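Model it.
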Amino acid sequence: MSDSRKHRILMVSDFFYPNFGGVENHLYYLSQCLLNLVVVMTHAYGKHSGVIYMTGGLKVYYVPLRPTILIRENISLVHGHQAFSTLCHEALMHTHTMGYMVVFTDHSLYGFADLGSIHMNKVLQFTLADVTQAICVSHTSKENTVLRAGLPPEKVYVIPTAVDTAMFKPAPEGLSHDEIIIVVISRLVYRNGADLLVEVIPEVCRMHPNVRFIIGGDGPKRVRLEEMREKRFLQDRVEMLGAVPHAHVRSVLISGHIFLNSSLTEAFCIAILEAASCGLLTVLPDDMIVLAEPDPGDMVRAIGMAISILPKIDPQTMHLRMKKLYSWHDVAKRTEIVYDRALRCCNQSLTDRLSRYLSCGAWAGKLFCLVMIIDFLLWHVLQLWQRERRSEKTINEGLEDKHTEGCQNCRAKI
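Modeled.
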């Protein structure tokens, strides 16, 4: 196998089980495929604190404090996930100062115009100015990350996410087309297009009397959907399930014919892959998907088109195609290649690193350099303090040994 078999990888993100989502699933399945190489670090969630072993023996640190994991686990490379994870940003910054190679995976698209986007993009530019290699889950995501973070394109690799086709299988028997069921499973927030659903669902129900919706997910926009359902008297045609545990997602998917994704900023949606693997009309290639602009009228048109071609769809054939197209083992192999290339890179001096931070902006660059100088000095102070503690411990142990030996000699004389 590749050279990375000799190394130990620390996966870092705020997004991990017991929470559920695309990043959480990606991190879990990738770690399972790299089981002998990987340790996961995330922050504590209630009773999930300390070291927990998951399926297959995957070791997960749910940490309030995290200073000794790198040494204890003999880590050689740190892999951070998701731009929204503060734990990821902290780990990449501090561990690179400590001399570790770092890899970052971006899972989302983000804008450039609003205040939140500007702030997040500047933070990402700071974090990734010194990253060894980066991974994006789609070519669109790569373009977005390169523009946001100012990364050289040759440092960024595209590795799509995948789906567990053993878990997501079509229903044994096909559903009747007398009633068409459209499934939506998503966190109900603005970025996932929940406001579009409020306008699209009533129009589709008006145009197609045999269509019913099942909506799984929770979030701040759930209230708007429930208000729409009551105002339009669609209680019998729009079923709201609330949050759906990942173990129950398949049972919801196989109850429908079409999967509707209204996300505005999705880089590569795992939920779409899971739906396609269950045989729902939704995903690539072209004969497995119907695309629409983020506009209610165009979405209604696309849903009508999907309903018209639904009789031509064979769920079992779609499942087999997904099994060949999107494999976690393939994702793991490609990720290992990135690890190998990262670990062959040379660790650069503080001067080289500061020159890259200065290029991040007239004022921001100077601020970033100051932060990194403080981080560098703090690291060396901690190293000196640790050496002093070790020296004191060695001296104390020597004194204890001499005292014990003396006592034994005294007892022998007595």
